[in-house]
């Protein structure tokens, strides 16, 4: 057995395993990523203080309402170079965190929940019989992988991604971000590039961190339109006489335009028989499908707008079919949803104890840093322009030390990323954390006053 | 609540208000030991009936009728004044029975909540409002001005879920966290963290409260059970309680049946002859793709454990397939752990139990997944093809499809069993390992009509609740 389980609490070990494999392959290409580069990155660039400030949620302050044990009850896990996986790491201060990361030089850092007690001391607490070691808080997280879209894209497959299919991720960010803010009322939301094939989302409002598993699952189901699996042909099912306002808004504000103006042509969704048959399969009316099939098979000349033309024909025919009613018209939306609607890895979001890779990690396969994405202009995000480790180190060596502050990253192309993290995410978050601490402290004081004044 | 022998001393009547109790605290009643048990059995019949109906995927309106009928049939009492007491006593007895493990608590919590839901819906509106007040719910109906501002969206949701649109509807505005089931089904309009729930959806709000109270209470009861009751009542209540709990859950398929060990070389053969479709399909896909996603590995892996595949053989089995796709080294690193984990050799060292039909039916396989219940999750076309490969004849096939259309997935599986084995399966299929065991038994005995054999073999292995209840009652 090669794998050494240093911590044997791996029962709910829920990390992305295939990155370990990717890293091994990577060692053959030293110019992109290696342990020495990573050491230098952790030594000079990684934004420890910002990470610590974030995950302290205001509890590192001097206010009497601060819970100083808070950060120390958070689980971190490290995946090391030699495949050792360390779970239940915890740190009481930013310097402890920094020293551990610098010393161990983890290829991947995962963030877990805040537990009821310090996770590194959980065995001491388990003696009592009652299981008081239990997760109490965790950001609501989402994980979206482009590899789950393989039946909706023709340019790439698996972990590969290009500028033709990346818009699928942009769509996901827009749809989920809007719903999290407008529907669920959350405001402290961090989107992060996962370093290779997708995006992560961290919802950090106090209310989100305290959701129980059932409530998390409810939100995930609210987002879910996929009912299919590998053995049923129809993947999206939009039932009922009307669509829920959330789906209507997603459709009209995001999905429809991206489908018709981007993906239809960029993915060549109607290019040939094999492709349009896949779409015709979603229409449950034989007469409609055979009419369309007949038209398309007899007219094979390939034109620039063949996708658009065929889509228009399909829409017209379905919409004109008055006597068959809503069911057929709904097919149009189902097709749009099938090729555009976000596909979430549901298990990651449902459980509080699920771990997720930390922002600002470096992906071992690509060497790219997991940088924040601003949802306000996520359509401008280009995964192939994300800073690469070797590039950052080069910038440090050559043009570095020009930053204004004492932060090394300031002079590198990571500078804008950290600044965005700090100014657009962290500052507003900490402001509302302070208010929350103040409010709950006052309430507590008031309560104890009331109970004394009997 | 105190259990006493035969003679009854006193019985305090709580007879105020609603006929639907919230079970907040154990009643100060004395209960005869016979009633203690008989009431519990009656209630258990109701819960078992609900549980079966749920696993067959009954629709809400069918459930409503079924639950109320079950209640009326089983929870009768010759003195109508005793009805409420019987209700409360039986609930608290079963709390004791089902507080003892996580799995029992989960089952009891979900079925009792379902029962409460339909009983609540059956109450007249004024009683419902009174019950809401009993739960101390601080929510007020939204004002007309606010209603007007979101009316369009509310009507859109009403149309989406097929509710009639009324202009004078009363809506409550509550934090979305309070009504997770309505959020999950997109049955409410949500804005800035608040869900607008219609009067007929209030039940969801009440249910959340009910479940959270009961969930906490069960944990407390469990503590009391381990710290006091188990010892104090060793000779009196404990035997009753233990009998009651095993009477529902049926056999524990975690342990392979006696003398049932299988070896690797036989596995292809028995997969063909005795695996239910859900497992046969996973097995096939594994051989085709040399890979299964997590849900599939769990469903098939635990089943094989229950069938009697030893840990070493299990490792060899998975390694043989996976290494062809991902290489032996990666298998050892990434997959071997979870197999040992399933056998309780890693992590928190729980010996995991094979999945029941109910669990498999309610799973939600996604893109790339092959687990789940084929009767529920396959398209009709794929299901027909799969059944044909199992050599299910035309006539039987149509019967199976008919059951599937009515969402009787376990009955569909039972019919498949009967068609494949040419033998009846009276107990029905409740668990893939039961399917396997029954199949093996038939193949071993070579007796096609094997009712007597099954019954013999069922001794100490009671898989049907009614048998046990009969034993208790007689």
UniProtKB/TrEMBL annotation, chain A:
The keyword Transcription applies. Its cofactor is Mn(2+); Mg(2+). InterPro entries: DNA_primase_S (IPR002755), DNA_primase_ssu_euk/arc (IPR014052). One of its GO terms (molecular function) is DNA-directed RNA polymerase activity. GO terms for biological process: DNA replication, synthesis of primer. CDD domains: AE_Prim_S (cd04860). Keywords: DNA replication, DNA-directed RNA polymerase, Metal-binding, Nucleotidyltransferase, Primosome, Transcription, Transferase, Zinc. It comes from the Eukaryota. SUPFAM superfamilies: Prim-pol domain (SSF56747). Its EC number is 2.7.7.-. One of its GO terms (cellular component) is alpha DNA polymerase:primase complex. It is an enzyme of class 2 (transferase). Belongs to the eukaryotic-type primase small subunit family. PANTHER family: DNA PRIMASE SMALL SUBUNIT. NCBIfam families: primase_sml. This is DNA primase. It comes from Solanum lycopersicum. The gene is LOC101258292.
Automatic annotation (TrEMBL), chain B:
CDD domains: PriL_PriS_Eukaryotic (cd07322). The keyword Iron-sulfur applies. Its cofactor is [4Fe-4S] cluster. One of its GO terms (biological process) is DNA replication, synthesis of primer. GO terms for molecular function: 4 iron, 4 sulfur cluster binding; DNA binding; metal ion binding. The keyword Nucleus does not apply. One of its GO terms (cellular component) is alpha DNA polymerase:primase complex. Binds 1 [4Fe-4S] cluster. [4Fe-4S] cluster binds at residues 278, 357, 373, 413. Belongs to the eukaryotic-type primase large subunit family. DNA primase is the polymerase that synthesizes small RNA primers for the Okazaki fragments made during discontinuous DNA replication. This is DNA primase large subunit. It comes from Solanum lycopersicum (Tomato).
């Amino acid at each position: 057995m090669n794998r050494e389980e240093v911590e044997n609490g791996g029962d709910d070990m829920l990390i992305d395993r295939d990155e370990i494999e990717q890293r091994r392959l990577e060692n053959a290409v030293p110019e992109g990523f290696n342990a020495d580069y990573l050491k230098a990155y952790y030594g000079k660039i990684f934004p420890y203080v910002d990470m610590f400030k974030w995950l302290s949620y205001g509890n590192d302050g001097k206010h009497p309402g601060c819970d100083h044990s808070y950060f120390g009850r958070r689980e971190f896990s490290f995946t090391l170079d030699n495949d050792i996986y360390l779970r239940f790491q915890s740190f009481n201060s930013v310097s402890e965190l920094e020293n551990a990361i610098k010393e161990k030089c983890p290829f991947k850092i995962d963030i877990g929940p805040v537990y009821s007690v310090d996770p590194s001391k959980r065995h001491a607490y388990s003696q009592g019989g009652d299981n008081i070691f239990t997760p109490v808080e965790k950001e609501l997280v989402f994980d979206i992988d482009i590899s789950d879209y393989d039946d909706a894209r023709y340019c790439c497959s698996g972990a590969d991604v290009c500028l033709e299919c990346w818009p699928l991720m942009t769509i996901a960010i827009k749809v989920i971000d809007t719903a999290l803010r407008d529907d669920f009322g959350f405001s402290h939301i961090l989107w992060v590039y996962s370093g290779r094939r997708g995006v992560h989302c961290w919802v950090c409002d106090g209310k989100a961190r305290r959701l129980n598993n059932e409530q998390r699952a409810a939100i995930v189901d609210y987002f879910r339109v996929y009912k299919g699996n590998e053995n049923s042909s129809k993947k999206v099912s939009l039932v009922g006489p009307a669509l829920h306002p959330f789906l209507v808004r997603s459709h009209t504000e995001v999905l429809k335009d991206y489908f018709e103006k981007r993906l239809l042509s960029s993915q060549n969704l109607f290019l040939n028989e094999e492709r349009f048959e896949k779409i015709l399969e979603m229409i449950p009316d034989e007469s409609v499908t055979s009419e369309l099939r007949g038209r398309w098979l007899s007219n094979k000349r390939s034109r620039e707008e063949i996708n658009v033309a065929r889509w228009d024909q399909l829409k017209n025919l379905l919409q004109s079919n008055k006597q068959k009613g809503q069911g057929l018209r709904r097919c149009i939306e189902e097709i749009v949803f099938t090729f555009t609607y976000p596909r979430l890895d549901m298990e990651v979001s449902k459980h509080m104890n699920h771990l997720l890779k930390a922002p600002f990690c470096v992906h071992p396969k690509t060497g790219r840093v997991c940088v924040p994405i601003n949802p306000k202009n996520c359509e401008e995000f280009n995964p192939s322009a994300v800073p690469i480790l070797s590039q950052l180190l080069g910038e440090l060596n050559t043009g570095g030390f020009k930053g204004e502050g004492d932060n090394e990253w300031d002079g590198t192309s990571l500078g804008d990323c950290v600044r965005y993290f700090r100014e657009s995410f962290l500052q507003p978050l900490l402001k509302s954390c302070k208010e929350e601490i103040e409010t709950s402290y006052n309430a507590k004081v008031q309560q104890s006053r009331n109970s004394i004044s009997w | 609540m105190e259990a006493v022998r035969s003679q009854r001393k006193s019985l305090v009547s709580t007879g105020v208000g609603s006929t639907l109790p919230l079970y907040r605290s154990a009643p100060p009643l004395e209960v005869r030991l016979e009633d203690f048990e008989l009431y519990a059995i009656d209630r258990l019949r109701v819960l078992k009936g609900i549980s079966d109906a749920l696993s067959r995927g009954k629709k809400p309106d069918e459930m409503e009728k079924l639950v109320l009928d079950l209640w009326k049939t089983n929870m009768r009492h010759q003195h109508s004044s005793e009805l409420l007491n019987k209700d409360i006593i039986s609930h608290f007895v079963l709390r004791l029975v089902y507080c003892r493990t996580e799995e029992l608590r989960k089952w009891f919590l979900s079925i009792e909540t379902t029962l409460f839901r339909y009983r609540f819906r059956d109450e007249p509106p004024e009683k419902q409002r009174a019950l809401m007040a009993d739960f101390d719910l601080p929510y007020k109906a939204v004002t007309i001005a606010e209603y007007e501002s979101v009316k369009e969206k509310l009507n859109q949701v009403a149309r989406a879920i097929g509710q009639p649109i009324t202009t004078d509807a009363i809506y409550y505005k509550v934090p979305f966290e309070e009504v997770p089931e309505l959020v999950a089904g997109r049955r409410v309009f949500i804005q800035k963290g608040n869900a607008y729930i219609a009067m007929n959806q209030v039940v969801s709000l009440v249910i959340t409260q009910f479940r959270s109270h009961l969930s906490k209470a069960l944990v407390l009861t469990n503590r009391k059970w381990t710290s006091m009751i188990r010892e104090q009542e060793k000779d009196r209540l404990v035997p009753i309680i233990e009998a009651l709990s095993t009477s529902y859950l049926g056999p524990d398929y975690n342990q392979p049946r006696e003398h049932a060990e299988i070896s690797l070389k036989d596995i292809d053969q028995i997969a063909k002859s005795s695996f239910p479709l859900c497992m046969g399909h996973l097995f096939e896909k594994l051989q085709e793709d040399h890979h299964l996603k997590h849900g599939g590995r769990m469903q098939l892996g635990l089943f094989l454990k229950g069938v009697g595949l030893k840990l070493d053989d299990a490792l060899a089995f998975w390694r043989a397939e996976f290494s062809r796709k991902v290489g032996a080294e990666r298998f050892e690193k990434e997959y071997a752990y979870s197999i040992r984990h399933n056998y309780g050799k890693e992590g928190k060292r729980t010996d995991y139990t094979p999945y029941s039909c109910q669990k498999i039916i309610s799973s939600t396989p996604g893109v790339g997944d092959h687990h789940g219940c084929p009767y529920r999750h396959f398209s009709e076309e794929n299901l027909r093809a799969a059944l044909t490969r199992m050599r299910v004849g035309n006539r039987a096939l149509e019967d199976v499809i008919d059951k599937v259309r009515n969402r009787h997935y376990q009955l569909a599986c039972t019919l498949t069993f009967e068609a494949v084995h040419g033998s009846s399966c009276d107990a029905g299929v409740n668990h893939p390992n039961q399917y396997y065991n029954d199949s093996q038994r038939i193949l071993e005995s070579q007796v096609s009509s094997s009712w007597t054999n099954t019954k013999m073999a069922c001794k100490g292995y009671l898989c049907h609740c009614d048998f046990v209840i009969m034993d208790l009652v007689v």
